Amino acid sequence: MQKHYGVSPEELSHVAGLLHSGQIVALPTETVYGLACLALNKLAVAKVFEAKQRPINDPLIIHVSDLTEAQSVCRPDHRAILLSEVFWPGPLTLVLPKTKIVPTIVTSGLSTVAVRSPANPVFREILNLVSAPLAAPSANPFGKISPTRAEHIKQSFGDEHPPVVDGGPTKLGIESTVVDLSSSRTRILRPGPIDREAISAILGEEPEIPELKASSDKPKKPLSPGLLAKHYQPESPLQVFSNTEDLMAFLKMEPSIPAATFVITHSPLNENCFPSKGLKFMHLSEFGDPEEIAKNLFARLREADAHSPPLILCPLLPETGIGSAVNDRLRKASFKD
What we know:
L-threonine binds at residues 31, 116, 136, 176. By secondary structure, the chain is an alpha/beta fold. It has helices at residues 9-20, 42-52, 67-70, 78-87, 104-107, 121-130, 151-157, 196-203, 244-253, 290-305, 323-334; strands spanning 4-5, 25-27, 34-38, 61-63, 92-97, 112-116, 134-135, 164-165, 177-180, 187-190, 238-241, 262-265, 280-283, 312-315.
């Protein structure tokens, strides 16, 4: 079977045929690459769980073209309509009561389903060609670093990786914001590119942000992906710091930093400050731009991890805007049981 596809009309038509036949295919979205299948095909969905080695109690997000198609799989309320009018297509996932046609395997037996309309033009064309909702969790083994480029799929799965459509690097680099609208309380379950303030401005209310302090706090059946305390993990240990100043102090004062430790910073750092420690440096943005940091985060983590360093160090961002989403990913990537 062909493993790599471009984005020509002929290739996308062939990919749509693969999906129609019940196969799984890695597709680009504006957030990360997703491992897509027909959302209403139970056997296809089971292939996604098997390929990712994903726990059966961790539900999937269904991707649709628009609100009209969403209504076939969920029951949107007035809040969902308001948010979808502003943020769809885009990186916003809504958790809503599901309809009867949604297979139990997709929702892990829950009465709710997570739904979004992606903005990536390649994914949208595939949705148009298959004329059906697609489930598409991140295209990587469960709990590991999310893929933001086509080559990351092979890195994650090896030579037996699923077919991949190469749509280039993803635009945003981190997963969608997840908002729970399944009750009268509006809750942000996972921070993402659309921040709390933007959602508040549309709804006229301040969404709750539930705290997830430790793995023992996680629900047995999370309402959406990305809610586990331990997630997005590199193979090498990752240590995070409250800010760049704390990281710098650690680098200067800690005598036992292992040689070949990778230091990932927000912007370029003067490496000459640490000539004798044998550290490896890389940065997420030329000028410390939070959106660029988010876009490059997973790719830089992968790049560092590929060297099998004894340790990876990275500071958090201020808890504003997309910084909250970046920090969420870093905390979960560094979480230890």
